[in-house]
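Whiteboard transcription, Tuesday session. T.W. wrote the structure tokens on the left side:
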């Protein structure tokens, strides 16, 4: 389905906000395959990791490197197709799922530590060039000057309030105006584009204030806690890897979405799970929760008996 997005005509796959990410099906509506790809990727990676450990009972540096290669190959195909759309937000979610599952896959820190350190160095270098030497990136990497606007507007939104920083300044105004208890349902006064999807948390902050926002965040923490507990309780490694994948997906979604509305992180098109408008996103998240419910159902623990 991700490949079909590239080759299908614009009548079926129109360009929305500069991206070809949706199928338009008459009588049904729009479908975004990348939302379902997240869940399928979790299942695929969990299967790859569990089968690898079954076949390689003797753990060595060579087997760990081979596991990383397999994880990279499985993740690389959908990641490249999603970036082709282009969809930066979903690409970051895919990468967060991959990284989360790598960290619990049993790969030696002798391999992970240099990779993580190298990633931090590269990210720091890119940020340095963006802030102080953008002309180098323009000259040698072909980066356009307007593409730096998202970073600049994140760091100093009020100087870009009429352009790239418009959404962030409005979001901060909406959340701040909600104060402690909010203005009440339907009483918002700050106009914010895309308030039903990517910036739904800004509306929650304005209408329900600090108390309502804190309740929403607490519910997400409670959900992630119970998924973590499920993953730790089950004795099946395949189930544990699925739980970790779902935790990585939900945690990144929540942290990135809420973080971008308060200026903590740059703005990307990532919805707030179970809250933002979007049928494909809701269905994908419900599929992930269905996996967790199934794991919990098949693992039953009783007070006065052995584990089943």
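and on the right, the sequence the group agreed on:
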């Amino acid at each position: 389905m991700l490949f079909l997005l590239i080759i299908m005509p614009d009548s079926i796959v129109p360009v929305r906000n500069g991206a070809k990410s949706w199928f338009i099906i008459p009588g049904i509506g729009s479908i975004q395959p990348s939302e379902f790809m997240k869940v399928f990727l979790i299942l695929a990676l969990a299967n790859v990791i569990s089968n690898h450990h079954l076949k390689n009972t003797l753990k060595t540096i060579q087997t760990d490197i081979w596991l990383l290669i397999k994880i990279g190959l499985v993740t690389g195909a959908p990641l490249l197709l999603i970036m082709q759309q282009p969809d930066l937000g979903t690409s970051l979610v895919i990468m967060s799922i991959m990284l989360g599952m790598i960290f619990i896959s049993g790969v030696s820190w002798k391999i992970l530590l240099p990779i993580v350190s190298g990633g931090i160095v590269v990210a720091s270098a890119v940020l340095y060039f963006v802030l102080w030497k953008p002309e180098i990136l323009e000259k040698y990497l072909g980066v356009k000057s307007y593409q730096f606007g998202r970073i600049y507007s994140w760091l100093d939104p009020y100087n870009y309030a009429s352009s790239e920083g418009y959404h962030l300044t409005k979001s901060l105004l909406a959340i701040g105006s909600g104060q402690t208890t909010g203005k009440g349902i339907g009483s918002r006064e700050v106009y914010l584009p895309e308030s039903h999807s990517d910036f739904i948390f800004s509306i929650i902050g304005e209408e329900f204030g600090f108390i309502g926002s804190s309740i929403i965040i607490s519910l997400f923490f409670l959900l992630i806690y119970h998924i973590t507990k499920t993953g730790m309780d089950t004795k099946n490694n395949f189930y544990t890897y699925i739980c970790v994948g779902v935790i990585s997906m939900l945690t990144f979604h929540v942290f990135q979405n809420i973080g971008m509305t308060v200026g903590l992180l740059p703005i990307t098109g990532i919805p707030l799970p179970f809250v933002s408008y979007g049928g494909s996103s809701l269905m994908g998240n419900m599929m992930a929760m269905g996996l967790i419910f199934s794991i919990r159902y098949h693992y039953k623990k009783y007070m006065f008996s052995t584990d089943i």
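Someone added at the bottom: The chain is about 65% helix and 0% strand.
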